[in-house]
Amino acid sequence: MQAPIDRIKLSQPAKDQLIKLKRVTKIQNWNVLCRWALCRSLAEKSPPSPVPIPADSNVEMTWQVFGGPIADLLLIALKQRCHDDGIDTDDETLAQQLRLHLHRGIGYLAGDPNIKKLEDFIELTTL
Q1: Considering only CA atoms, which of 20, 44, 62 is closest in space to residue 100?
Q2: Which end of the chain is more exposed for a tag (fewer CB within 10 A), N or C?
Q3: Which fold has domain 8-124?
Q4: In terms of domain of life, where is this protein from (predicted)?
Q5: What is the rounded distance in angstroms from the CA atom of residue 53 to the CA atom of residue 85?
Q6: Which pTM value belongs to this model?
């Protein structure tokens, strides 16, 4: 599937939150944590707030690195979520929603006081 965005660049606050998550979970790859974050946000019932997100950190990855072997599934999930929220699924909107969901998800994961180790992180999948 054709990705709506070639490169994903994170904000500095998101980078700082990912550093915390890396320390807590021992997951060392940005892209793996970002996949978890996207899925965490997509699972929320409400849409993310349409706030401007700066791309001011040095954390950047291609769509293929971000999505890895599940890139197509992540894109399908994002498109379905946009459809469910009554939002267009053109490339520009998908790219914007991806950034909003990704940053919201990173914030949710980093701000969860129950995540103190990898096992707590994995428990999120059973909720």
Answers
A1: 44
A2: C
A3: Arc Repressor Mutant (1.10.1220)
A4: Bacteria
A5: 20
A6: 0.93
